[in-house]
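Narrative of accomplishments. A recurring question from our advisory board has been how the design workflow behaves on a single, concrete structure rather than in aggregate. To address it, we present the structure tokens for one chain from the evaluation set, followed by the sequence designed for it. No filtering or post-editing was applied between the two.
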């Protein structure tokens, strides 16, 4: 038993990166049973984060490694909205306390071990006609192996705009659109074509025209799903939101 324990402990320290959370399934792949994991916890060699989730003690939990684990548990999970815009450098001039915005297809909640360390919000949203395994314009951050999946800045802008009238102030949305001059019109056009929200499509075009952002002139608005010719009207906490076709 001692030899087995020492061998498993060596695997634990050589294969488990500091700050990375692992599941019981991951530990089993290293030859560590549930009973042995419990022994390691009592001995101080493992830290139990939550039910079936562990990490090595003494090192702060790593955000990117934690997101990688959550991606295995929630279909379509990715960093999006204002967080993704901020990661890509599209942000307001006034720095505000940030809350990590995560999107996915599954109904679920972020585990307490994650949300208690990383202030965050999870939103189940199906804004585009796509499949969770092949999300449009979502990829590992900067193409790095093992990096969390993040919306492109174009997708993140539309995710943010979809929240206007619900959680997202209109004025802040306008300022973020104003700072999005570097967005790629071809990528944005592809996303708008697959967008299932008439409000989001119209709001994107309307705000971009209001602030005279360059990429809007490159979009063929007539081919985009803007709905009927009637105005889209909604009452929000900021007043009446009217979006013309």
């Amino acid at each position: 038993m001692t030899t087995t324990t020492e061998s498993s402990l060596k695997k634990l320290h050589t294969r488990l990166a500091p700050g990375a959370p692992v599941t019981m399934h991951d530990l089993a792949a290293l030859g560590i049973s549930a009973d042995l994991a419990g022994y390691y916890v009592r001995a101080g060699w493992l830290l139990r984060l939550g039910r079936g989730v562990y990490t090595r003690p003494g090192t702060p939990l790593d955000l990117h490694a934690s997101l990688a684990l959550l991606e295995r548990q929630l279909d379509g999970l990715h960093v999006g909205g204002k967080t993704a815009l901020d990661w890509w450098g599209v942000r307001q001039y006034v720095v505000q306390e940030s809350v990590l915005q995560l999107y996915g297809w599954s109904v679920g909640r972020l585990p307490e071990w994650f949300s208690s360390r990383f202030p965050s919000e999870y939103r189940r949203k199906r804004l585009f006609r796509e499949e969770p395994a092949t999300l449009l314009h979502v990829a590992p951050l900067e193409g790095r192996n093992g990096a969390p999946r993040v919306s492109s800045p174009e997708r993140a802008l539309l995710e943010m705009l979809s929240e206007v009238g619900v959680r997202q102030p209109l004025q802040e949305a306008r300022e973020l659109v104003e700072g999005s001059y570097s967005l790629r019109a071809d990528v944005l056009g592809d996303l708008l074509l697959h967008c299932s929200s008439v409000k989001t499509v119209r709001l994107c075009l309307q705000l971009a025209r209001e602030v005279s952002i360059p990429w809007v002139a490159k979009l063929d608005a007539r081919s985009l799903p803007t709905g009927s010719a009637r105005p889209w009207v909604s009452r929000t906490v900021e007043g009446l939101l009217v979006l013309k076709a």
